[in-house]
Design a protein that fits this description.
It is a single chain. By secondary structure, this protein is α+β, with helices and mostly antiparallel strands. It has 3 domains: 2-102, no CATH class; 108-288, Thrombin, subunit H, CATH 2.40.10; 292-464, Four Helix Bundle (Hemerythrin (Met), subunit A). It has helices at residues 2-23, 28-40, 45-70, 85-90, 93-98, 107-114, 272-283, 297-314, 317-325, 329-341, 346-382, 391-427, 432-464; strands at residues 118-122, 127-132, 138-141, 151-155, 161-170, 175-179, 189-190, 201-206, 216-226, 229-232, 244-246, 251-261, 265-271, 287-288. The strands form 2 sheets. It has a 6-stranded antiparallel beta barrel. Strands 8-9-10-13-12-11 form a 6-stranded antiparallel beta barrel. Strand 4 and strand 5 (161-170) form a beta hairpin. Helix 8 runs antiparallel to helix 13 and helix 10 runs antiparallel to helix 11. The chain is elongated and about 100 Å long.
Length: 467
């Protein structure tokens, strides 16, 4: 009723404004008289007839607008109208209604946008869902949907059935990529799962309980972010696995994956940003299995060797000593204060030099440990044969070998200059400013050792994860 009253008021203003204007310009008395005359002279047939008819027509239009506005629940009832009659006139009813589209698509529009890229996946052991992610036929699904197989039957939204090859899988994360021989495929639009928060409207699509036919569509909200997963209120069941979780713009923000519970369940999806980071490796042939028993003897030998080398660098005692004992921050803070008070104090300078020499010597020991580790790692590679490995596994091994050679040269080049610094410090011919500069360089050298150990370890882990 408030909206109707407001619109009638505006329309009356439109009808009365010309009369007021022609009655007298900028005269408040005459404006009042003009309004009174218009309301008083109802016997002016032509004007009364026209006005009544206009009001009647506009009243019908108001009724139509009210019905259309009531259908748009996202148009706030508390929004205040503009005081400017002209601005209200310019804003048409279509503009008011279309403003709600900024909030997202309708359910029908979401289905129309996403459904063509949804596929039904069946194997000897499992049934599930998937989504086409590229026009050349790559499909994203859950790894458990295609577990224990290398091929699957893929039914497209058109009803066409294709044979899909499982080109990559990561059973730890539970994602897999299947490839079908098809070009110009419709594919989903990926969103950004990092911006999705509790309360956001979401929708699931797939084939619950493996029932083939039209794609099932369920709606709900994000319940919470739990670890690396998204908990949702929308229903998913066995068979929904691998299907998309989409936002109100029809963008994929997750992969429906699993439930916890029996009668009452909580439902989870893997964030699409996790998948985005993994898809290139999966398309390249990455195969990660929870059960390592299916690895060949050659593959197990390589994996075990990589694990041993990773432990070796992480547990290197010289590197650990350099990181923990090469730099005594409290001692250097004391020496810095003392040297500022009396730059010629021989005892302070001698103590300063002694601490620097001890620190640099520990760091040089750490650098030598890195260098010797890299030499030994190279020897490990030289003893291995890589026959029987997948292309993806070979590519990751080659990446690691290239990294090892690069670091071998880098570590070798760092040892000698730092040994020369120790000799310079022992010469006893340094200014206090030079001592402070060497102190800062020592801190940077310790950070370098820490970073190199972690980085090298992570590079080895990438190669381990290829098996």
């Amino acid at each position: 009723m408030k909206k109707r009253g407001l619109l009638i008021g505006i329309l009356l203003a439109i009808l009365l404004l010309p009369q007021i204007t022609f009655a007298a310009w900028w005269s408040s008395t005459n404006w009042f008289n003009a309004i009174k005359n218009i309301l008083k002279h109802k016997n002016v047939t032509q004007q009364a007839t026209t006005t009544d008819q206009t009001i009647s027509d506009l009243s019908k239009k108001i009724d139509e607008l009210e019905k259309r506005l009531d259908q748009k629940d996202n148009v706030s009832t508390s929004t205040k109208p503009s005081n400017s009659v002209a601005s209200v006139i310019k804003k048409s009813s279509s503009e008011i209604i279309n403003s709600s589209n900024d909030q997202g698509l309708t359910n029908q529009q979401i289905i129309s946008k996403v459904k063509p890229a949804i596929v039904y996946i069946s194997t000897t052991f499992k049934l599930g869902s998937g989504m086409i992610i590229s026009s050349d036929g790559y499909i994203l699904t859950n790894a458990h949907v295609v577990s224990e197989v290398n091929e699957a039957d893929v039914t497209l939204s058109t009803g066409e059935v294709k044979i899909g090859s499982v080109v990559g899988r990561d059973e730890k994360i539970d994602l897999a990529v299947v490839k079908i021989n098809k070009t110009n495929s419709p594919f989903v639009q990926m969103g950004n799962s990092d911006v999705a928060v509790a309360g956001d409207n979401i929708f699931t699509l797939g084939f619950p309980f493996g029932v083939q036919g039209d794609v099932s569509f369920k709606e709900g909200t994000i319940s919470r972010r739990l670890g690396n997963d998204i908990e949702i209120s929308a229903e998913i069941h066995p068979g929904n696995s691998g299907g998309p979780l989409v936002n109100n713009k029809g963008q994929v923000i997750g992969i429906n994956t699993y439930t916890i519970g029996k009668t009452e369940t909580i439902k989870f999806a893997i964030p699409i940003n996790v998948a985005k980071a993994l898809i290139p490796d999966l398309e390249a042939g990455k195969q990660i299995f929870n059960d390592k028993s299916n690895l060949t003897e050659r593959q197990l030998s390589i994996v075990n060797g990589l694990i041993v080398n990773k432990a070796s660098i992480m547990n290197s005692q010289p590197i650990s000593i350099a990181m923990s004992k090469a730099y005594d921050s409290s001692m250097f803070e004391y020496l810095n204060r003392e040297i500022q008070l009396n730059q010629s104090d021989n005892y302070v300078i001698k103590t300063y030099v002694t601490n620097l020499v001890n620190g640099y010597q520990k760091c040089v020991d750490g650098l030598n440990a890195l260098y010797n580790f890299t030499v030994g790692f190279g020897a490990f590679f030289s003893k291995q044969t890589f026959t029987g490995l997948s292309d993806y596994q070979i590519s990751k091994i080659n990446d690691l070998k290239s990294y090892e050679l690069q670091k071998l040269r880098e570590y070798e080049q760092k040892v000698s200059p730092n040994q020369m610094i120790i000799s310079t410090l022992n010469s006893g011919t340094l200014t206090t400013q030079q001592l402070i500069s060497y102190q800062n360089d020592l801190k940077n050298l310790i950070n370098y050792l820490s970073t190199e150990r972690i980085t090298f370890s992570n590079r080895i882990q990438i190669a381990i994860d290829a098996f």
